[in-house]
Amino acid sequence: MSTAREKMLAAVRASQPGALPLPTVPLFDGEASVEKFIALLESIGAQAIQLPHLSQLAATVARCYPNERRVASDLLPATVAVAATTPAATLATIDLAVLRGAFGVAENGSIWLPEAAMLHRALPTVAQHLAIVLDQHALVATMHQAYARLNGQPGGYGTFLAGPSKTADIEQSLVIGAHGARSLLVLLH
Amino acid sequence: MSQPQNHAQRSDLFLLDEERTTWHDETLWFVRQKRDRAVYATPEFQELRQLASDIKDHTLSRLAEYLEQFEDAALANGVRVHWAADAAEHNRIVLGIVRQAGASRVVKSKSMLTEECHLNPHLLAHGVEVIDSDLGERIIQLRDEAPSHVVLPAIHLKKEDVGETFWQHLGTEKGLTDPQQLTEAARQHLRAKFLAAEVAISGVNFAIAETGSVVVCTNEGNADLAIGLARVHIACMGMEKLLPRLSDLAVFTRLLTRSATGQPITTYTSHFTKPLPGRELHVVIVDNGRSQQLGRPDFRASLKCIRCGACMNTCPVYRRSGGHSYDFTIPGPIGAILSPNIDMRKHASLPFASTLCGSCTDVCPVKIDIHTQLYKWRQVLGAEGMLPASKKYSMKLLSRVLARPALFKAGGAAARLGLRFVPHALSHAPGYNPWAIARELPAPPKQSFRDWHAAQAATPAPTV
Fold first, then answer.
1. Residue B342 burial by Cβ neighbours in a 10 Å radius (0-12, 13-18, 19+)
2. Structural domains in chain B, sorted by start
3. Low-confidence ranges of chain B (pLDDT < 50)
4. How confident is the model at residue A2 (pLDDT cuts 50, 70, 90)?
5. If you average pLDDT over residues A77-88, what whole number do you get?
6. CATH number listed for the domain at residues A30-188
7. Residues 198-227 of B with CB under 8 A from A
8. Which residue of A104, B147, B294, B362 shows the fewest CB atoms closer than 10 Å?
9. What DSSP element (H or E) covers B129?
10. Which GO BP terms apply (chain B) (predicted)?
């Protein structure tokens, strides 16, 4: 294609050593309990609630977020409709997004959020607050188990989300709510 | 004072503020301790380090093939792939994409590569507004400074400095020093920039040959927010960022943040594989000296670096000299082995900015033999005639003395006697003995080891 491409590949071929083996990575396992997952969530600045039943979702969200009026969600009655084409100006007004996570990782408290669950790629970060609904049986122990579950298919866009947005760029003082969601509530059922 | 030429002279500037130096030293050591706690809580951590090292060694040994595989997969995903042999070509390509998009407002998340290529000045000179969106990067952009650490770019600053900068540039109250309030001010200021940006530029932590994905790790969510809103995403990556398989990310995501800050994983570990219809994802693959380093067998392993910063946090020299003393995009021990490949003469002092204690090697998550490479660069620099005269001639003199036992013996006797009578001001004169500027010579012993040993041999050993 381009000359830079040929030049770079030729330079790499001239420099790279003889082929070394690619190791097989063991599928390291470990504890995948709800207790461990919740403990990790709390250690990374998130909160967790165990719902007795999914039917209590809307009432629980209403109780936890009494002041957040502009809510985007496909899981409960929403006040702002969001789709892939929603303009940024609308997204910027959203107080709360309630989305479904695919599965959780107990070793680090992260949750795989695939594009299909986001409504809009920017919604999980542009919303002021974020709540993730997660099946408490959908937990894996380690990142190895997590990627095995993705089975080489990360989708167009997807993220392992671990807690609310945070920074420690000023004197190493931890501040929750840098640019993304100011809080993360995980609703387990 | 004239422009400082070497690491030691630049360190002197940092060391002028003793209180700040102590704070810097202790804060980074605290980060190192957080790393230790996270590492010890992960039973297979050492096994993961070995796997990471082996995966990277393998990938570098077949890098050309993986680059082609990545390109094929990315193209099939609708990604546009660009190749840049050097920094100038990288900057031209990025500017070209921005112009083609008809854009003038760009937000950029953290990318050491774009720092290396000096992308910001290039875009600004061509009328493009580029805003660094990581909080630490934004602070130093407003101050027109370079990052002093790969993970903690503003670690050389105190909250009072940030308060002053935000007062000047963001209109916050004068004297504001609360990190929470300062971060909130930056959040409000940058929200407007995110919403207005037409192009989002990001770095790349890992690129996956198998799927054509690029993976970006942040804690702030600035990359995801910018990319999710902007029509065009440009991901800039060094060619060594490749991993063969998606599942290899398990090894690296487990190592990266535990080594960097002691967190179990970054808040956002985001996989960008396909652009949405009507949107664009460009990946710019950059060489800029990497293929040359790949061809240096002794220094090749430096390309395995995943930019966690653990070697900086643990380094007794970095912690007490600050990132700017290295005068290179990547500071600290890893920067000291990467920089001579780029410009040997300019960075000749960096491989000497080390005690060779090996702590960097001990904490490196991909097992780069950093302190061995520091030692090897010293040999290369010596052979190339790039040692400073004081070091060169003192080493020559020392090697002559050490090669002649009689001369060594006579010299030792003279020194033991002489040091008793030479005034302290002379034996510790900075002009003659820079070693003694911050150190005391030990009291000279009464006899040499050789004399002591001879005396022992004459006396029969006591029986137990």
1. middle
2. 17-291 (3.40.50.10420), 302-383 (no CATH), 389-453 (no CATH)
3. 1
4. low
5. 96
6. 3.40.50.10420
7. 210-211, 213, 219-222, 224-225, 227
8. B362
9. strand B129-132
10. lactate metabolic process
